[in-house]
């Protein structure tokens, strides 16, 4: 197959990132497609399934497929596509059980890179040492499994592109680490910067994975502020909305209260910044300087969320000012064109021809 016929594959789900990377790369002249292993359902805290309808070019399996059917479909997909791959960018997961695909691609000298999300690469023992608010109890068995997984994958995939927190764990095993930011298609975002002197600011929180997000502490702060007579509208958004519906709800708020216990921000925080909102989230002290200068989030943890919310309610002009800075930050560092231009440079550095 001619090199010009080969494609950059974005393999995985990860909050819709693979699709936005693939589309952004293709728009810049580097043909790419996104492939999800399974349709985009996810499990909520209560064990039920939610459908987010995250965009993709192709899904290999249906959510209803049993284990054997998924294995067969993934194997067929691998066999049909293995010679079309110019570079493969994994997102949280590899293609086949036993990591057979990464062994094959290494033998065939196909460039590979992997991006982590959520807890995919997080070592709980280290996270607890660095983060006094971390939400998980010690789990030596899980840490051992994570370490073994990272150690094995790093024998074949030498490159990682991730956020500052997950990059920290990756440095223990992988040869090359690149800081990569979440991509956002600004044309798809409803921009609605809050007015300058709000009489009744609108607060929004999405209580998926409540222990992780610190929902309890957010609710406690909100209840305390209400009892003290502060005027605001607080809403908890349903956790089973699609990405499009979620973005609409975010556009209707003034302050988005994200999460207080992880120590880095995720995709929904980026969407809120792009929409021109104040984002309240927790960034670990030792990671703050790993982000670009001017990060506009209101850095909050369970101990400070009450005071930070109170300050915003007492100085509503800050809400509009921070909202403008949030949008500017998203344009400068998370716009798909910006991120994908950086990604092309990374791909060339790791051997893409």
Q: Which tags fit this structure?
A:
353 residues; alpha/beta; 14 strands; Glyco_trans_1; 2 domains; Rossmann fold; globular; five-stranded parallel sheet
Can you offer a commentary on this structure?
It is a single chain. The protein is α/β, with parallel strands linked by helices and 353 residues long. It folds into 2 domains: 3-183 and 335-349, 3-Layer(aba) Sandwich (Rossmann fold), CATH 3.40.50; 186-333, Glycogen Phosphorylase B (Rossmann fold, 3-Layer(aba) Sandwich). Helix content is 39%, strand content 17%. It is built from 13 helices and 14 strands. The chain has helices at residues 17-27, 67-81, 100-107, 124-130, 140-153, 164-170, 210-213, 215-227, 243-251, 267-274, 305-314, 317-333, 336-349; strands at residues 7-12, 32-38, 41-43, 49-51, 58-61, 85-91, 112-115, 159-162, 176-179, 202-205, 233-236, 255-257, 278-281, 298-299. The strands form 4 sheets. A 5-stranded parallel beta sheet has the order 5-2-1-6-7. A 5-stranded parallel beta sheet has the order 11-10-12-13-14, sandwiched between helices. Helix 1 (17-27) crosses helix 13 (336-349), helix 8 (215-227) packs across helix 11 (305-314) and helix 10 crosses helix 12. The longest helix is centred in the last third of the chain and has 17 residues, at 317-333. The chain is globular. Residues 43-49 have low confidence and may be disordered.
């Amino acid at each position: 197959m001619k090199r010009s016929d080969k494609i950059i594959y974005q393999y995985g789900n990860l909050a819709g990132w693979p699709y936005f990377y693939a589309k952004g790369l293709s728009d810049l002249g580097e043909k790419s497609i996104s492939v999800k292993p399974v349709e985009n359902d996810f499990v909520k805290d209560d064990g039920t399934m939610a459908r987010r309808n995250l965009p993709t070019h192709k899904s290999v399996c249906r959510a209803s497929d049993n284990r054997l059917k998924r294995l067969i479909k993934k194997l067929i997909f691998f066999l049909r596509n293995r010679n079309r791959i110019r570079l493969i960018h994994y997102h949280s997961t590899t293609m086949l059980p036993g990591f057979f695909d990464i062994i094959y691609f290494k033998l065939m000298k196909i460039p590979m890179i992997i991006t982590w999300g959520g807890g995919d690469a997080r070592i709980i023992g280290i996270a607890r040492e660095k983060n006094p608010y971390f939400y998980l109890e010690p789990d030596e068995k899980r840490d051992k499994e994570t370490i073994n997984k990272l150690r094995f994958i790093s024998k074949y995939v030498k490159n990682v592109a991730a956020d500052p927190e997950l990059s920290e764990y990756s440095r223990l095993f992988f040869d090359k680490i690149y800081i990569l930011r979440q991509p956002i298609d600004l044309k798809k975002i409803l921009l609605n910067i809050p007015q300058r002197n709000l009489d009744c600011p609108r607060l929004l929180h999405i209580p998926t994975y409540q222990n992780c997000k610190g929902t309890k502490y957010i609710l406690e702060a909100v209840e305390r502020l209400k009892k003290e007579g502060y005027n605001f509208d607080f809403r908890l958004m349903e956790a089973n909305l699609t990405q499009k519906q979620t973005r609409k709800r975010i556009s209707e708020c003034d302050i988005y209260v994200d999460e207080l216990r992880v120590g880095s921000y995720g995709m929904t925080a980026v969407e809120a910044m792009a929409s021109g909102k104040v984002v309240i989230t927790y960034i670990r002290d030792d990671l703050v300087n790993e982000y670009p200068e001017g990060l506009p989030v209101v850095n909050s943890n369970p101990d400070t969320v009450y005071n930070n919310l109170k300050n915003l309610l007492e100085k509503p002009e800050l809400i509009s000012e921070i909202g403008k800075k949030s949008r500017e930050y998203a344009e400068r560092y998370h716009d798909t064109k910006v991120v994908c231009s950086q990604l092309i440079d990374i791909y060339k550095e790791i051997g893409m021809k």
